[in-house]
Design goal:
By secondary structure, the protein is an alpha+beta fold. 20% of the residues lie in helices and 37% in strands.
């Protein structure tokens, strides 16, 4: 079978109209202007306080404020459903089963003043205190986390909610004389539910 390069009519769609406008000099290409995406660096995080949780500096919201400023990276966020397999004769069918959230990792700058490190260690230490052997309760540990995604004009356009989040691990980054970068702290966070809210933009 011979290969033929048939002409594809792209009129009436964004790609075709954009190319036509460029060729005619009547406007900018649609693909370069219409499908702008959010920046991966355009966000800010909020970690809500929990009654009875250890705070820093004697201020009720001290750890929340410093963690909002210290957080520099948020790992992938998502959820899945388990499969329910049903076998019938020679066929196999699948149905959605139990809901399960992923674990994400939050990375924080280790500020010289120590506020971020103290707040994060206190949060993690609440899950299990190796000195006393005490384990924390959900009411003491779980927090709601919001990640606000910002548009090019720094206006909030989407919010990701992590409900019932608590720390699963606390980890200092490598200490190395040969490196020239800021030191960081990683906290693995497990959450009960995740929701996504998008706002109308003009």
């Amino acid at each position: 079978m011979a290969y033929t390069n048939n002409h594809i009519d792209t009129s009436g769609n964004a790609f075709g109209n954009g190319r036509t406008n460029l060729a005619a000099g009547t406007g900018l290409g649609a693909l370069g202007q219409k499908y702008e995406s959010l920046r991966s660096y355009g966000w800010i995080i909020e970690i809500e306080p929990v009654t009875g949780a250890p705070e820093t500096g004697g201020r009720p919201d001290a750890d929340v404020d410093v963690l909002k400023l210290a957080c520099k990276q948020v790992g992938a966020i998502g959820y899945t459903t388990e499969d329910i397999a049903v076998d019938r004769v020679n066929d196999k069918f699948y149905y959605p089963g139990k809901y399960s959230t992923d674990e994400t990792t939050l990375t924080f700058d280790n500020f010289v003043e120590g506020d971020a490190a103290e707040a994060l260690f206190s949060w993690m230490n609440g899950t299990f205190d190796p000195v006393t052997g005490r384990m924390g309760t959900g009411a003491e540990l779980k927090r709601n986390i919001k990640i606000h995604q910002l548009g090019p004009d720094n206006v909030e356009v989407m919010t990701i909610h992590l409900w019932g989040a608590y720390p699963r691990f606390w980890r200092l980054s490598e200490l190395n004389y040969s490196q020239s970068e800021f030191h960081t702290i990683e906290v693995g966070v497990r959450y009960d539910f995740v929701t996504h809210e998008a706002y109308e933009t003009v």
